[in-house]
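User: Fold both of these, please.

Assistant: Here is the first one.
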Amino acid sequence: MRHFVLLLIVLTSIISCSGNAPESPVQNWEDLSFRIETRPDFISKGMMEFLVIANRAHKKPASGMIISLRMGETGKWIQAIEDGNVGVYRRAVRVNDPATDVLYVHIERKEQEGILKFPLNYGIEK
């Protein structure tokens, strides 16, 4: 009985914590898909940590790229840090207005380059 109660508590905690964070739309570049997550989950004014998550087909991680971020068309590019070989690149960037700001993601892989644009209004707490 004790194990059952403990299992119920754990499952309830997991369920209540999952699904609350907003998810950015997935964007494709070449043969890869990209999405972003933030820390904290909901986007607000100030410094936010952005995680760029890159996947190959079948959700396999895409690593070995140089990913840089900037806020808006004229911001300064800041190189993200690759988090192991798991297809996650992270960097803190200042958000001025979550309703209108757009995160630009510059991708370099081998001799290919591309830019993706992620409007941040998807992640505002409602």
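And the second sequence with its predicted structure:
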Amino acid sequence: MTKEAMIRLTGFRQVGDEKNPVGFGTLFGYPVEATAPRNGRLTLIFTAAEPPKRKAVKQLGKLVSEDTELRGAVTVVQATENVTHPNTFLVTLSSKDETAARDLYARLLSRLEGALQGLEGITAPENCIICAQGSADTLAKYDGAVNKTHMACLQRWKNEATETFENKAQNPGTLLGIVGGLIGGVVGAVPALIALGIFHYFVWVLFALIPLGVFYGWKLLRGKLSRITTIFTIFYSIAVSIVVWVGAETMMARAEGIYFSLFDTFEFIFSLIRYAPELFAEAFLRNALMALGAAVVGIWISWRQITRTDQAALVETQAIVDAAVPMEREASTRETTDEYV
């Protein structure tokens, strides 16, 4: 079955383009996003009120698989790396045959309806994700997952984002952003320094905290997030990583009884680079490359965050509001499959 046919099977409102169709709807009180990763596969992303208990998700999978027809065709798992919202769990159905897919989907809904009732550790959200009040009338992909909300709340959120962007366009606060980035980079380097001091080893993942620290330091002091932020974050992160490396060399020298200051170590290393490159390559090149490599890895890990601009965030906000759909009465299994036929 095609991706579009798999989405139609749910009876949800379809959003997105033809190549990547997505459906928004509700099932048993849960807001659900229906996606089709490839032909013949349907993934239902349920949003719960709170992060579902791992034990409850496993129990749900067992209850669904008690139907022998669904066993092997349906999987139930918690959020993966590609669906990062902690409140979500995924139900995936696979079938290449159109008739079999309709039957499997109907059986799946029947099993889910019974399994979710009274299952401890997974609860459906009741209130608007923005204002926390009841009587939600809209489904929107807010905060990384499809949630119940009010259209009025979405419009207010969009207006506030637009106003914030326009204010930053007039007063970008670049200087404050740089100050925040400078402080944030130092704070982000602390875990890597602690690991170096204790283990005398570059813990690569910790270097991802340096560019994140720079980015969020800039953001915290309300600097406008632009390409300047990204460029500053990259170069300053590399500079901080080099300082961390030199700091590590200083600590190791002191452990050997050579009480260099950080500046002394810098001066010594650069004198070796200038006058004795062979000795530098033998004694320091490996750690220097590790420091720069760790910085690059850190930037790569956090790339999605540090390249996020205010303009991109505003465009994303507008897209979320435009893709929002009104909540409708949940279709029963019979209504959903009959409509598809």
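The chain has two domains: 3-127+325-340, 164-308.
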